[in-house]
Amino acid sequence: MAPPMTQGTMRTSILAALGAAAALSFAPAAHAVTGNQSVTADVANTLEATFPSDYAWGDLAVGAAGNTSAAQTITVKSNALWGVDVSTDLADGRMKEWDGSAYVVASPKTLGNALQWRLATLGGVAQGTTFGAISSTPAEVVSNHAVTGDSGVTLGFLLKQVVSYSDVRVAPNAYRIQLSYDAAQGY
Amino acid sequence: MRTAFNSATTPRRGTSRSLAVAVGIVLAFGVAAPAARAACSLTLILVPCIQVSWPSADVALGNVAPGTTPTSAEQIINVSANTTWGIRVSADQAGGRMKEWAPSGYIFPSPRVMTNPLQWALTSVAGSAQSPSWADLSTTAANVVSGQSHTGCVLGLLCGTRDIGVTYRVRPTFSDRRAAPNSYRLLVTYDAQTGF
Lengths: 187, 196
Prior knowledge:
heterodimer, A: mainly beta, 3-stranded antiparallel sheet, B: 6-stranded antiparallel sheet, 14 strands, 0% helix
């Protein structure tokens, strides 16, 4: 059994203990630590669109009522205001004789009436019934349309061609015109 | 009789590191006078400790396009621990969705909020690639790793480390509008602990 400490011994012990405690104050016990990190981004203005494939109309009938195409569809996804224009490669919008690889150069035949178009549905909602002539000057199909979300918005439109008794058959060639669609943000 | 007592702690240097090394000592101390008999006992207890080096910089994903799934560079968390440990991750926004941020803070009122939550995945442990299992961030902490064995600390002097790699991805939609000159932001909090 250890003898009782003298007063001096006890004082020394207390000082030693205090010293040890002071030394330990620089070594905090950490069982958990946390850290933060911010993640930032912005969203790029983005538009995706799908357009109709080539349309083979077949033989057109003569008559004022004209020939109406099957519905052509454009689907647009956009996260900013958007619109669609349509135009043709031929200035006056009249279909021109085509030999299968190019427009006929020497005295091509051209239909008497310009191709027409109209927006039939927008997002599944029926639109007006009036056709408008189409030309190399872009015509506005839709403008300032709202953000679509991931489901997108589908435009259905129709083409109309009036054929008269002045228009002659060109087989084995055909009449052709090229449509250009321009879907963009900001208008 | 002479009794010596030494306690050394060596905090690692590094601006982003947290001091987390500790040696706790419970001491019953008696120092004997030259002419006296003395008894001393010394008990050394190693306190569970963990030292972490967090990813060095914030993550800037830049302009992200709807229909794509941009992924961040892998963020490395470097850990030293002398016992079992784990890491949790959480976000400051409910639902883990990035929120419109001006340089001074989140926009209020009517901030824009991304449609989909930011996602995270554990992508490497000790340099070994992991097949990512993407999960939404939220304000509820999720385990990144748990039950990790000690990394070889010996009295806080010879510490091994282990890298934990975390990667983030965002899935913008065509409903998410550009916020410039602001941006979208989420604050991620890591919590490294011993004992889980």
